[in-house]
Amino acid sequence: MTNGLTAQEVAATMNEFGLVDQVRSNRIRIVTPLPRVREALERARRVLACDHLVQIAAVDNRKSFELIYHLTGPHRTVLSIAAEVPRDRPEAPTVSDLLPPAGIYERQIHDLFGIAFVGHPDLRRIILNEDWPGDEFPLRKDWKPRPNVFYGGVPEEAK
Amino acid sequence: MPEVVVPIGPHHPALKEPVNFKVIAEGELIVRLEIDIAYNHRGIEKAAESRDFVKVVPLLERVCGICSHSHTTVFVKGIEEVMKVGVPKRAQYIRTVIAELERMHSHLLWLGVAAHEIGFNTLFMWTWRDREAVQDSLEELTGNRVNYGINEVGGVRRDPTDRDVARVLRRLPVLEERIAKYRRMIAHEPTTLARFRGIGRLTREEALRYGTVGPTARASGIEYDIRRDDPYLAYDEVPFEVVTDTHGDVYGRTLVRIGELLQSVGIVRHALENLPGGPIKVATPRAAPRAEILSRYEAPRGELVHFIRTNNTDKVERLDIRTPTLANWTSVAVSLVGQHLADIPVVVAAIDPCLSCTSRVTIVDREDRETKTMTWEELRAHGMRFYREKRGV
Predict the structure, then answer these.
(1) Do residue A1 and residue B223 have CB atoms under 8 angstroms apart?
(2) For A102-157, what is each residue's pLDDT tens digit?
(3) What is d(CA B148, CA B156) in angstroms, rounded to the nearest whole number?
(4) Residue ranges of A 59-118 with Cβ closer than 8 A to chain B
(5) Pairwise CA distance, residues B264 & B135, whole Å
(6) pLDDT, tens digit, for every residue of B16-43?
(7) Which of A145, B164, B253, B293 is the most exposed place for a label (fewest CB within 10 A)?
(8) ipTM of this complex
(9) Do B280 and B380 reside in the same domain of the chain?
(10) Which structural domain, as residue segments, surrounds residue B386?
(11) 0.80 exceeded by pTM
């Protein structure tokens, strides 16, 4: 195991992408505009050896969606790259070609938040049931089950 | 040879929860694997947003029946960090003991399931018998065999007596001896050698590339263990080693898990013998300040992550759970390519998926449009027959 990344090291490489913030001893966070996410992930992987994607966290903050890419590597410091996805245009570039594990996480976020990952080779449903309505995304904050919609399973009249 | 699609799932009692695989095979060889894990989505992340920190812990305990302590611990330690609450040492030690007992029961269970998948039912019976000793210890310490209910924000809910501690300690030498025996057995028994060695291979590069975690990663030579890399609970005070192996196949994953069983025995012993005195919980504020935290935990299956965002209330704004099984799926799809249909049960079982499987397999022959249906039992029997005829085991 090598030593952890320092905020200075990260700032030196990642400064152009956004503000670098040391959240706690082994967590460093960067906020970057969405179109630069791929570039930032690629740079973090190449220069800072952040080759392991821990998770893509997705949050609905009511005004927009946030994607937070948590990366780590042999240094074992978690580098989080956060980006905002506009609510009226829920699209983000895929990173599944850069980091293969992203493929399955992006499918999950697409399913639950309705964010389309542009360039993803296979953005099929993975978490919700196959007969779930295609235009409803349950983890969005404004989602409420509607009374007359069929959400899958056994239809009411067959019960 | 025509290409066939083999759908497996979503129901099968051998694995714990439902999942559906479509295996695309050419003859006996697997070309591609597709998965659908939709069958068990219970909306827990959404439900967690509407429960306060007291009520959400029992809910998270039910994310998984086996790693129930993992999910509550990773959550409460995240919330405690956000609240800046110092949890008493005794509570951290008790949590560590439960965590390692949970790892032991999970790994013993896994060893039994893997043995069963290759038709080695004697080993299955033995490991599950030994697992009972672990379950008894858990029951004595927490009151429950599963879903222990020991955690709460600020500490633990039950203080073990000296008698409880002594009883758990007394069981450890027997377990240690049994586990060492399994290690010798795995290395010499022709059945395990033929069915585990060289199966489901994942090189170090592949394991890194596909984001593998837990024993699966460590069996490919990656020293990735959150207990050491991002210490929590009492792991920075308890001596243990990160077990790795370089085989990179099902055999290596078995050796890693057995090695970890022995390490867990050591951790439990050390923690119980050096159990600090004092209180087991502290009072915590009702609400957590606005913050964001990535809480990590080494669950039996690998790195478990809870991303938590709090918002000045007594509920979470968002809880995003990434389970180790989800992280390991990508690598299963890779390690099965080029393998025999006969190896599906054991390769899938080798990541110890915390999802479940099948009761029927439909084999569609594209050329003559013939559909055959196989149950998982038949597939398992096919695997055993295949190896008996080819290799004489």
Answers:
(1) yes
(2) 998 999 999 999 999 999 988 888 888 888 888 899 999 999 888 888 888 788 77
(3) 11
(4) 59-60, 68, 70, 76, 78, 80, 99-101, 103-105, 108, 112
(5) 14
(6) 567 777 788 887 788 887 777 777 778 8
(7) A145
(8) 0.91
(9) no
(10) 3-40+339-391
(11) yes
